[in-house]
Design a protein that fits this description.
- The chain has helices at residues 18-23, 54-70; strands at 26-31, 34-39, 77-88, 96-105, 109-118, 123-135.
- It is of the alpha+beta class.
- It starts with 17 loop residues before the first helix and ends in a 6-residue tail after the last strand.
- The mean pLDDT is 90.
- Keywords: Hydrolase.
- One of its GO terms (molecular function) is fatty acyl-CoA hydrolase activity.
């Protein structure tokens, strides 16, 4: 798999996304049908047990899967989540790595899957998602 260079600091694969910056998500790699990010553990992202909150896990999965659907750091199109299914398999403790793949991309819809793993390799969560591809038009929104 060929993967492009690491994105510039403060950029989320060509996009400014304040919520991802707030969560502390680190964009690492993007390439054709692939994206990888990481989430350093922070206490303010945890639930009452000290594990990363499930809503945080779903948010970083949603972003990373949509980045895999784009497959490029060029922000010439956007992704709108149609559907996302997440299965939680173990607690999100410590630093986490999120990897996503685009399984199929048509003219207007993309289908993706991805995982979150702990530093020890333990699978934390797995998600599948469907995205509507939104092409940016010159002079449009």
């Amino acid at each position: 798999m060929t993967v492009s260079a690491t994105p510039a600091p403060g950029e989320y694969f060509g996009l400014a996304i304040p919520f991802m910056r707030f969560l502390g998500l680190v964009p690492e790699q993007i390439g054709p049908a692939y994206a990888r990010t990481s989430l350093p553990w922070r206490q303010d992202l945890t639930n009452s047990r000290g594990d990363v909150h499930g809503g945080t896990l779903m948010s970083v999965l949603d972003f990373t899967l949509s980045a895999a659907a784009r497959g490029s750091a060029e922000a010439t199109e956007g992704m709108a989540t149609i559907d996302m299914n997440t299965t939680f398999l173990s607690p999100g403790t410590g630093d986490l790595v999120i990897e996503a793949r685009c399984l199929r991309r048509g003219g207007s819809i993309a289908f993706c899957e991805g995982d979150i793993r702990r530093a020890d390799g333990e699978l934390v969560a797995r998600a599948t998602a469907t995205f509507k591809i939104i092409r940016r038009r010159p002079g449009g929104d």
